[in-house]
Amino acid sequence: MSAIVGVARAEPAADLPTPAPAPAAPPSSTGCANIHEFVATDCSLTWNGITLYGAYDVGVGWVSHGLPENGYNYEGESLVNRNAGGSRFVIAPNNLQETGLGIKGKVEFLDDWYAVFNASTGINPQSGQLANMAGTNATNNGLPRASYSETGDGARAGQAFNDELLAGVSSAYFGTLTFGRQRALGTDTMLAYDPAGGSYSFSYIGYNGTMAGGGDTEDTRWDEAIKYRATYGPIHFGAMYKFADGSGGCYSGSATWTAATCTPEEAHNTAYGFDLGGEYGKFSADVVFQHYNQAISVLNPLLGASSLSGTYQSTLNSVNTNPITGANVIGTNNTEYGIVTDNTAIMLAAKYTWDPVKFFGGYEHIQQFNPSNPLGVGASAQGGYLLSGVEDNNLDRPKIVQIWWAGAKYAYDIKTDITLSWYHQQQNDFRVPSTCSAEAGFRASCSGTLNEVSLYADHHFTKRVDVFAGIAYSDVHGGLAIAIPHGPGVPYNYNSNLAPTVGGRFTF
C-alpha cells in the first residue's frame, strides 16, 4: 500500500473489483525478454521504467432476479437490484477484475528520487464501451420502471481515464507524493483486506462502493486530489486531500423557487483522509478515516410521467421534493438525480495468514449529514454529468451506516484458491417522526439491512490465465429494500438475488 504508481494489472470496482496494488517494477527492469517468457511467466511489459498493463475478464451467469443488460454497466448483476425482474442468463463482465488498460512509470531522475505516473481506464468486455455507471442512469431517464435496463452508481462515469490519472515523485526514504485522479484511501484498503479482492461478482464491498468511498460509491476515486504515502519498517502511513472542483449548480431555499430565483453556487466538494497501518509477522491491520463534503449518491434514473419527471430540488425533508414552477434550469437528457450529504467514516481492517488459509475481516462506521453547503440543480457529478434533480435535505437526523465483512481464502494447491466471504450492512432510522413498520409501510429513511454471502474457486492455468466459478446470494430488508426514496417509497421488486457465475481472465 505504498507508492501508488499503478497496479500490476487493470483494476475493477467500486467502482470498484481489483486486486491490491502491487509494487511497481524496478526501474532497471527490462520486462519480458520474448514471447515465450510473456506466455509462461508474469513478467511485465516494461521498457526503461515504463510499463503497459491490462486485463480481460468476462463470464456467463444466471440471476434469479435480473434486468436487461446495459452496455455501460461494468459491475454485472450479481447483487440484489431494486428494479430487477425475473430470472435470466447474463453475460457477466469484470467478475474478479475490471477489464481495461493502463500505463505506469517509475523513472529515476536523482539518486533515490523517481518520477512516477499512472493512467488507467476500465473498458466493458461485453460492449467495448468505457466503464460508465452514470450512463446506465442517463439511458434510462424518462422510462417507466418496468422498461429499465441494468442501472447503478459509481465513480467510473465514462472518463477517458476512469480509474486513475496521476503523477508525482517517489523516494524509498521519503515516500510517494502524487496528484490527480486517484483511488481513495478506503478503496486501497478495501482491495487489500477484502477476501474476494474487490470482486464485482463475489464481493458486496467491491460491487458497491459505499464502504470504499466512505459513504457513497461515487467517492471511491477523488479528482483533483493530492496523496502521500510512506513506509517506515513495519508501519505505513497515508494522507489525502481533495480540492473543490466542478459546479455547485443553481440553488434556492424557497419551496416555490423558479429558474429565475435560484442562485448559482460554487462547489465545496473538498475531502480529506488518513490511513495508519502496520504488519507484525503474518498479521496486518489498517485504520482509515475519511471525510467528504457534498458527496453525491445517485439512486435511480428520472422516471417517466407516472412519477418524477422534469427537474426537482428538495427544500424540506427526507420525504418531500418540490418541482420547479417555471422553466427548467437544465434539460433532463444525460443527467442524474442525486442525494447530497456530508460524510464522515472510520474503518478498521485486518488479515492474518495461517497457511494455507488467509483470514480477513473489517468494520466501517459512516455518518451522513445534510450538507453544510447545498448543491443546486445543474451541479457536477462524476464524469461531468449534471444533476437535474437534487435533494439537500434528505435526512431528518444523521444517517448511520455500518458495514461488517469477514472471510477466508484457502490455497487448495499452488494454482487454486477457494474463497468464502460474508458481508453485512445496516442503517438506522433517520426519519422524524418515525412510522417505520411493516404495517405502516417502510420508507428508504427507515432502518434496514443488506446481506451477501459468496463462495468461489479460482484456478490458474498459467500466471496470466485463470478460470473461476462461484455463487453469490444477497438480500435486503426494511428501509434498504425501498427502491425510490420519495414520498412513501417504492419497494424493491424482489428482495433477494441468487447469482452463480463462471468465467475466465487474462492479465498482463
Structural class assignment: mainly beta
Radius of gyration: 22 Å
State the CATH class. Answer: Mainly Beta
CATH fold naming: Porin
* N→C terminal distance: 20 Å
Q: Flag low-confidence runs.
A: 1-14, 16-29, 305-309
User: What is the number of independent domains?
Assistant: 1
Largest sheet report? 16 strands, antiparallel, barrel
Can you count the beta strands? 25
Identify the quaternary structure here. Answer: single chain
The percent range for helix content is: under 10%
Architecture overview:
- The structure is a single chain.
- The two termini are 20 Å apart.
- The chain has a 16-stranded antiparallel barrel. The protein has a two-stranded antiparallel sheet with strand order 10-11.
- The longest helix is centred in the middle third of the chain and has 9 residues.
- Helices cover 5% and strands 45% of the residues.
- A hairpin with a 2-residue loop joins β12 and β13.
- With 508 residues, it is mainly beta.
- The N terminus is likely disordered.
- The chain has a single domain, classed as Porin, CATH 2.40.160.10.
Label this structure with key terms.
single chain, 508 residues, mainly beta, Porin, 16-stranded antiparallel barrel, two-stranded antiparallel sheet, 4 helices, 25 strands, globular, disordered N terminus
Summarize the structure.
With 508 residues, this protein is mainly beta. It has four helices and 25 strands.
